[in-house]
Specification:
Elements lengths: L1 H4 L2 H27 L4 E3 L6 E5 L6 H10 L5 E2 L10 E5 L5 H17 L1
Helix pairs in contact: 2-4, 3-4
Length: 113
């Protein structure tokens, strides 16, 4: 209750929004650099995005290749043929440099899958 009554809560929300916006922007830039042609959906969600890849993928093969590179990725192809090019990518818990590294590894996994 004291947190909500004080200005500390508002400061926390402002800082968190800036941090998440920077991470979202880092993800968009890394995808443009490492996996050109990727379109992002759900940018306003705040903690994750749906990445639409330039071409459909074998989700299970990508998942295995990404796991081998220590990258968590969630292919949406199991939802139906309209999602064969879609991945859910979370970014809230990663720093900007870690996001770039993860997307570079994801690009390698895509090339393998």
């Amino acid at each position: 209750a004291r947190l909500l009554e004080s200005a500390a809560f508002d400061r926390h929300v402002r800082v968190t929004r800036r941090r998440l916006r920077a991470r979202r922007d880092a993800l968009a830039a890394a995808l443009a650099r490492h996996i050109p042609g990727t379109r992002l959906e759900g940018l306003a969600a705040g903690l994750h995005v749906v990445a639409r890849l330039p071409r459909p993928i074998d989700g299970a093969a990508l998942w295995r290749a990404a796991q081998a590179r220590d990258v968590g990725v969630y292919p949406l192809g199991m939802l139906g043929p309209g999602y064969a090019d879609a991945l859910v990518l979370g970014y809230a818990g990663l720093s900007e440099p870690a996001i770039d590294t993860a997307v570079a590894r994801l690009a390698q996994a895509l090339a393998e899958a």
